[in-house]
Protein: Adenine DNA glycosylase
Organism: Dongia sedimenti
Amino acid sequence: MPKESMAEQLLAWYDRHRRVLPWRAKAGETADPYRVWLSEIMLQQTTVAAVGPYFASFLARWPSVEALAAAPLDDVLTAWAGLGYYARARNLHKCAQAVAARGGDFPSDEAGLLELPGIGAYTAAAIAAIAFDQRAAVMDGNVERVVARLYRVQSALPAAKPELRALADSLTPDQRPGDYAQAVMDLGATICTPRKPRCALCPWREACAAFKAGDAEDYPRKTPKPERPILHATAYWMTMPDGSVVLRRRKEEGLLGGMMEIPTNTWRATPWTLDEARGVAPVAAAWRDLPGNIRHVFTHIDLRLTLLSGSLRKVPDGMLAASLDKLGDYALPSVMRKIVSAAVKGG
DNA sequence: GATTCGTGGGG
DNA sequence: TCCCCAAGAAT
């Protein structure tokens, strides 16, 4: 099948099945670059369902890129808490300030977008196509999967990326590039799914090599990922006489960078004994262990936590005390909220 | 090219 | 329970 007709076929399918998403312009409407950018950053490695409420609250609180640029970084981190990949929040803020500094308009081409913080190859193409209707080949996980099946690409990811990208580019039409970009991603999200693809409903079924071979689910091929190390640590639940709890801000870079934390000792492969954990506590206190173990799985770390509780009279240097009913006002990532929950429950 | 970066849902 | 993975970027 000629590639032009494949794009036409997909666009016809899209016109019939176009999904309503909070950041998506309705048919015939012009997309708002700010909304497109904000949603694309949030959607990096994150599901539509998870993004929904965050997108709504960000948009309500910061209706424009200028408003977001003017916000304190800590407010952005707090609003982002729970969504993960916190470098995105720091880059979001940095990017907003860069755009505000150039008058509030986003660059309208891929090259210009690519220079902005937090915008890589995929996001630059997505914004160029969706917000500015420029011809740009978007390559995300959906497109990788669709194209790998369509051509039954034998090489494995991530090495196959350049090959898949060239194929994706050759399929991208000059007409309606913004709709095409959303269409091919929607196809991957709703029809050409990782498992149990709904090939019977696919507009590209006739052209699909993997469908013909009956092994769509075997693509894209992937090289196995390294296994996740198990690390152990102790969280120190330090309470003040008024019932507030001691928090600390993490360093700006690295894991959970810039976010708040319940202080822990070093994350290490060997489990900590009670005495060892008491010996390296942030401050001297009558530490007692709290019941319940916490497990939190990051992309590359399987973290196991135990809890020690201590009563303090004064807040340690470099830390702060927060009342339990105000913890929502702090930039606490999910793993730290798990600790809070376990500590409150365990007394 | 390989690593580092979160979290929650689905099968 | 476990594994996969999601509109990837930065280093």
Q: What stands out?
A: Chain A has 14 helices and six strands. The radius of gyration of chain A is 24 Å. Chain A has two domains: 3-218, 230-346.
